[in-house]
Amino acid sequence: MPEAFLAPAAIAVVLIVAAMAAVATIKALIVIVPPNRAAVITGRNRRLSDGQQVGYRSVIGGRTIRVPIVETVQHMNLETFPIEISVSNAFSKGNIPLTVEAIANVKLASDPEPVFNNAVERLLGKTEGEIRTLAKDTLMGNLRGVLATLTPEEVNEDRLGFAKALAEDAGEDLAALGFHLDVLKIQNVSDERGYLEAIGRKKAAEAVRDAEIAEADAEADTRQAQASARKRAEVLEASANIDIAEANNELRVRKAQLDQDGQIAERTALV
Questions:
Q1: Are strands 30-47 and 72-77 parallel, antiparallel or unpaired?
Q2: How many C-beta atoms surround the C-beta of residue 37 within 10 A?
Q3: Which is the most buried residue in 21, 180, 181, 228, by most CB within 10 A?
Q4: What is the pTM for the complete model shown?
């Protein structure tokens, strides 16, 4: 009787252990990926939309099951990371060396698919420090290239335009490596020779001069307007005086006529 009882119990234990092992195995094979990371499963070939054949598949923000023994999983961080860029003695148009400081926000591109594939092929397995260094070196090279096409005035006065030109130039090179450029801002532009400072003083002097000229023109316009007003007032006053004098003359003539008529009437009465 005890032996008959122990046999089913042993079978139950074996089944429980087998079930737990199966659950653990399935859990180990399930790959769950958060939206800020990409899982690259290598080991089996697949064909891309353009017909190219690659030896991996990827999952971003989802889950999949890897084939045991055949497939392995590696993860890539898709979060944005800031890069501080600083170049010194970079020659602008006209051979004026400038120092430019900028900051960029860069990430591994999750789309479009060709750019993400570039990231997989070129950056998979690299450390975050190596990835950051590669992006920084690329941006610094583009910064020097774009700087050579612009004058110091264009760089200093139109920083938004400079940043836009740099982003457009660097975007293609970064995409070829699998990066995506989120934001790029120029923080400071300077030079050791004092060229930009001299331009600033010149601009300030021109602004003061223009302000003084504008003020003088305004004063002249004011004086001219005042003179015109006085002239109109004098003309009106003279016209009024003429009207008064004519009225007085007419009054004297009329009085003389009345006096003459009165005298004639008196003489006529006497006669």
A1: antiparallel
A2: 16
A3: 181
A4: 0.62
